[in-house]
Design brief:
mainly alpha
């Protein structure tokens, strides 16, 4: 449960909170469109789920296995904002988390990061997320934040570990592996990821 002091007045009524979150998401979507990202990706085909991370539809449909890494993002945003902003109300931290997740999605879809993914990770044919996939990733981050706000800290840690382990077994990738491979690629991990 969240440990926000009950005596601090909440500056974000639910409706305002939802409206600002919607505006942040719309601004992120507009930024990605302005950067040349397509609404539904390379082939312009809408879809709900792409389970094959090596498919041309990965990161193009609404959801894919990497959507689950954004649930972890949300839980991590919650923890980080709790550590650095304990005096802030839960809804203020929520709005900051939405802004951070939107900013990450825009940054993740810059040419610099896309080229880095293609050079250093197993995402050899990655050309950026579709705008719809990216916005669903933000929604997954929101889910992760809310899970962390509701569950005790230990339960949240267990959820994150289970998500990471399940993804590593399922697709041989996870948020932790992705970050490691982006920052300092390890050839042994790359070979393990590519040989299925």
């Amino acid at each position: 449960m969240d440990a926000s002091p009950s005596r601090v007045p909440e500056p974000w009524p639910y409706r305002l909170c939802a409206a600002v979150a919607a505006v942040l998401i719309a601004v992120a979507a507009a930024a990605e469109l302005a950067m040349g990202r397509r609404l539904w990706g390379i082939k312009g085909e809408p879809g709900l789920w792409s389970g094959d991370i090596f498919s041309s539809h990965n990161s193009q449909y609404l959801t894919d296995p990497y959507t689950f890494t954004h649930v972890t993002h949300g839980a991590l945003w919650y923890g980080l904002l709790w550590l650095v902003g304990r005096k802030l109300t839960l809804r203020t931290r929520f709005m900051l988390a939405v802004a951070l997740e939107c900013a990450w999605e825009v940054f993740e879809n810059t040419d610099f990061v896309i080229h880095r993914y293609r050079a250093a990770t197993i995402s050899l044919d990655y050309y950026g997320d579709s705008v719809m996939n990216s916005m669903c990733d933000v929604a997954a981050g929101i889910v992760g934040f809310l899970i962390a706000a509701v569950l005790p800290a230990r339960a949240t840690v267990v959820v994150v570990i289970l998500l990471e382990a399940a993804l590593a077994l399922w697709i041989r990738d996870s948020l932790l592996l992705n970050v490691v491979m982006l920052i300092r690629p390890i050839q042994a991990i790359r070979e393990w990821q590519l040989h299925r």
